[in-house]
Amino acid sequence: MSDDQPARPPSAGLVDALEVRRNALVGVVAGIALAIVIYLVRVFELAGPVAGSRRYPVVGPEGWFLILGFVLASATALLVAAALTLVTAYRATREL
C-alpha cells in the first residue's frame, strides 16, 4: 500500500465553466440591494408607522435591523448565486 493520494483533476475548470464568480457577484449585489430597500422601508417607516411599541435591547431598532439586513443580504446572495449556478449547469449540459 502506498500513502500517496491519487491525483485529482483541478476544480478551477469546473468553477470557470459554471461561472461561479460571476454568479456570486450578482448574488451579492442582489442581496445588498434587497437588504437596503427593506432596511429603508422598515427603519424610516416608508410604509407607515408600525403598530404597537417594542423594546430593542442593546443596539436599538436600527442596530437590530442592520443585523437582520446582513442576514437577509447573505441569504439572498447565496440563493441567487446557487440558482444562477444551477441554471448555468443546466445550460452547459444542454450544449453537450
SSE order in H/E notation? HHH
How many domain units? 1
- Fraction of residues in β-strands: under 5%
How many E-type strands?
0
Tally of helical segments: 3
Q: Roughly how much helix do the residues carry, as a percent range? A: 55-70%
Low-pLDDT segments, ≥5 res: none
Computed over alpha carbons, the radius of gyration is: 21 Å
Shape: elongated
The average pLDDT value, as a whole number, equals 84
The main sheet comes to: none
Structural class, by secondary structure, is mainly alpha
Q: Please give the alpha-carbon distance between the first and last residues.
A: 39 Å
Walk me through the structure.
Helix content is 69%, strand content 0%. With 96 residues, the protein is mostly helical. It has one domain (19-95). It is elongated and about 65 Å long. The two termini are 39 Å apart. The mean pLDDT is 84. Keywords: Membrane, Transmembrane, Transmembrane helix. Pfam families: DUF7536 (PF24380). The chain crosses the membrane at residues 24-44, 64-90.
Describe the structure using short key phrases.
69% helix; 96 residues; mainly alpha; elongated; 3 helices
List the helices and strands and how they pair.
Blueprint: H1 12-17, H2 20-43, H3 60-95
Task: Describe what is shown at a glance.
Helices cover 69% and strands 0% of the residues. The protein is mainly alpha-helical and 96 residues long.
